[in-house]
């Protein structure tokens, strides 16, 4: 999120924002509760009304305040735009701030939902090699199970840790474990080779118990996961999904491969990855900051804001010119709800914005309603979507 804001603010100061980026910047700064307060909006408006811009040398401080309000991370965002550039940009910024402030303070009463749905949380199941299924949510901290020379421990924060009980003990290479999250669940696991995996909602990862010692480290993924693969130049780490296969030696990346999504996205944050479709007829090597989009066996590689791809792991939904249909698929998995469209054209509405994954769904839906293009009803476990 910080990277995206810095990018937009730099483009703003240079006067090179596209109309879409302007819409995104104004939305983030002026309507996102996590980024700006009513007091700051009022301060901007008051300064413009009470005195000319040139009389106020404190714009850098004001804008720094806007970008640091209610941020969960301990380090304040450091603006990369020089003070002189901000002085040049602040007058235009004030005009839009004032206009938005007047609109917001005179907006209609918010839609009141008659029911609500709580967000997801740490929920997962561990399926052992012998078929036994253990609820990790209900398991107490400490050893969960011991099998085939492996001990599995659940830490107090929920993370699973695998340890080989004896360095000299051979592990059957046919035995596998599977960790799966339901809708409304997420989980973190440290595999026997030291790699760490964060599973998003409605996802699963299957792996061999000898992954820490075998020549090739192989896992199977459904859904979405963020990987921090332990470096090992001699033993590649291979991930297979329903549509592609990815090979790395040690790196950080995110894969989204839900069966109800028409595309598979692989986003690289660090290192290098080789990604290929299942018949190996098409492949790409990604660099940090790139995303491979696989559709019908063909890849499209593009530069992206990697923070958006992994926002879910850090507790956010982050959307950048994304269709409502795609957004609501993500919400349906996290809140474990069904989505029904009364007006199919509502699927095409585009949205920019960032919201917490830990708010009730009504608060998230209100954000979308602020576009003036969609309206929602919540009936039990169903979200009904209308075109406004």
Automatic annotation (TrEMBL):
The keyword GTP-binding does not apply. Gene3D superfamilies: 2.60.120.1440, 3.55.50.30. Residues 316-385 form the Protein FecR C-terminal domain. Pfam families: FecR, FecR_C. Residues 178-273 form the FecR protein domain. The keyword Membrane applies. InterPro entries: FecR (IPR006860), FecR_C (IPR032508), Ferrdict_sens_TM (IPR012373). It comes from the Bacteria. Keywords: Membrane, Transmembrane, Transmembrane helix. The chain crosses the membrane at residues 86-104. GO terms for molecular function: sigma factor antagonist activity. PANTHER family: PERIPLASMIC SIGNAL SENSOR AND SIGMA FACTOR ACTIVATOR FECR-RELATED (PTHR30273), PROTEIN FECR (PTHR30273:SF2). This is FecR domain-containing protein. It comes from Pedobacter endophyticus. The lineage of its organism: Bacteria, Pseudomonadati, Bacteroidota, Sphingobacteriia, Sphingobacteriales.
């Amino acid at each position: 999120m910080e990277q995206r804001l810095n990018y937009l603010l730099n483009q703003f100061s240079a006067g090179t924002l596209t109309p879409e980026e302007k819409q995104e910047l104004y939305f983030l700064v002026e309507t996102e509760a996590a980024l700006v307060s009513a007091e700051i909006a009022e301060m901007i408006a008051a300064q413009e009304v009470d005195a000319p811009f040139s009389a106020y040398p404190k714009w850098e401080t004001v804008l720094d305040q806007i970008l640091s309000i209610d941020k969960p991370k301990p380090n304040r965002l450091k603006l990369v735009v020089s003070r002189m550039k901000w002085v040049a940009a602040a007058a235009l910024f004030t005009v839009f701030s004032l206009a938005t402030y007047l609109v917001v303070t005179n907006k209609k009463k918010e839609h009141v939902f008659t029911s609500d749905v709580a967000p997801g949380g740490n929920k997962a199941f561990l399926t052992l090699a012998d078929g036994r299924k253990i609820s990790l949510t209900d398991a107490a901290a400490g050893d969960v199970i011991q099998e085939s020379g492996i001990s599995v421990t659940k830490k107090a924060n929920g993370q699973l840790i695998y340890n080989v009980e004896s360095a000299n003990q051979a592990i059957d290479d046919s035995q596998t474990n599977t960790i799966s999250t339901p809708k409304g669940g997420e989980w973190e696991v440290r595999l026997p080779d030291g790699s760490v995996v964060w599973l998003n909602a409605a996802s699963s990862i299957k792996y061999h118990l000898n992954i820490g010692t075998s020549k090739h480290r192989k896992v199977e993924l459904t859904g979405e996961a963020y990987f921090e693969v332990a470096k090992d130049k001699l033993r590649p780490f291979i991930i297979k999904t329903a549509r592609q296969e990815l090979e790395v030696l040690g790196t950080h990346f995110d894969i989204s491969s839900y069966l109800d999504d028409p595309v598979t996205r692989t986003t690289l944050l660090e290192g290098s990855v080789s990604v290929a479709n299942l018949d190996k007829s098409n492949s790409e090597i990604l660099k940090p900051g790139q995303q491979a989009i696989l559709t019908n066996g063909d890849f499209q590689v593009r530069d992206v804001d990697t923070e958006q791809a992994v926002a879910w792991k850090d507790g956010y939904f982050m959307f950048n010119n994304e269709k409502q249909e795609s957004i609501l698929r993500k919400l349906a998995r996290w809140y474990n709800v069904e989505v029904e469209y009364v007006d199919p054209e509502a699927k095409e509405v585009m949205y920019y914005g960032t919201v917490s994954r830990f708010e009730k769904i009504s608060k998230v839906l209100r954000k979308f309603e602020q576009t003036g293009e969609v309206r929602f009803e919540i009936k039990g476990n169903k979200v009904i979507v209308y075109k406004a």
